[in-house]
Amino acid sequence: MKKTLTATLAALTLAVSAIATMAVAADKPTMGVVVKIGGIPWFNAMEAGIKEEGEKLGVDASMIGPTSADPALQVRAIEDLIAKGVDVIGVVPNDEKALEPVLKKAMDAGIKVVAHEGPGLTNIDWDFELASASGFGEAHAKLLAEKMGGEGEYAVFVGSLTVPLHNAWADAANAYIAANYPKMKLVGDRYGVAENVDDSRKTALDVIAAHPNLKGFLAFGSQGPIGAGRAVEERRLVDKVFVIGPFSPGQGRALIKEGAITGGFMWNPAEAGRVFVRMGKLLVDGTEIKSGMTVEGLGTIEPDAAAKDIITNNLVTINKDTVDGLADLGL
């Protein structure tokens, strides 16, 4: 009898514990962040930030990285998250227009939507940026002009011709150069290859062959500087052709030390991952996003409520002096 009672009490204890665990899990907000492409260092770092902050804030947060930078794959991933009934969807868009219908579907289902690198999206609660489009583009343009001596031919890479922010950066850079350095000449059209290192390398080799007087590449998209840098290295054009753009320091460390990549600016993708979760948690908790509030990773914000944008400037310089420290942070 005593053994039976003991066994019964033990079973009840386990059952209560299981029910409590299930209740905690049910109360835990769920979030899925759909990025442009999986498996590259930039988004690997972002995923680490998402998971870290999710554990810290008690959010079941994960990242979904499609196998290629295809907007249709992002739409499919968002559809899956809607079907799962997550509380928050985050997105780094490849094509804003292609995602608007599925993001509207998410919002109609009561799901909060947070974007990054999508300042033109409308079917969202908020988009956050760690750099303004004009400031980011102009910073790279100034560095390229300085290295090229204010004259000569240059080419521009973007992730694709539909990635909104890459093209906004390129627009700002080209406008700044045209207004301030009339002896600098853009060759060709912009090339949508900078999310793929092999495409960037091959295109850079082709551009170099077609334009023997080329002096620079302005590459927006984390694989663009890597591919262009490899092409410059192969053609032994270090200190003759300058490669400027944002990239993952750990991936480009050797190239920048050799001079095949000249430098660039970035923000911390791991911090962007953490901000995704912080913003999602604020929205789930019903916290009003307002002027003057402080959001860790963004600082004191001045949100544009009409455009649903939060634009900050948190640029980090990448050069020979800083690359080791940044790479050692896992970036």
Automatic annotation (TrEMBL):
Q: Where are the transmembrane segments?
A: none
Subcellular localization is given as: Periplasm
N-terminal signal peptide: 1-25
Q: What is this protein called?
A: Monosaccharide ABC transporter substrate-binding protein (CUT2 family)
Which classification does the entry list for the species? Bacteria, Pseudomonadati, Pseudomonadota, Alphaproteobacteria, Hyphomicrobiales
Q: InterPro entries given for it?
A: Bact_Solute-Bind_Prot2 (IPR050555), Peripla_BP_I (IPR028082), SBP_2_dom (IPR025997)
Alphabetically sorted, this entry's keywords are: Signal
Question: Which species is the source of this protein?
Answer: Oharaeibacter diazotrophicus
A GO term for molecular function: carbohydrate binding
Q: Which family does the record claim for this protein? A: Belongs to the bacterial solute-binding protein 2 family.
Periplasmic binding protein domain spans which residues?
32-287
One Gene Ontology cellular component annotation?
outer membrane-bounded periplasmic space
Pfam families in alphabetical order: Peripla_BP_4
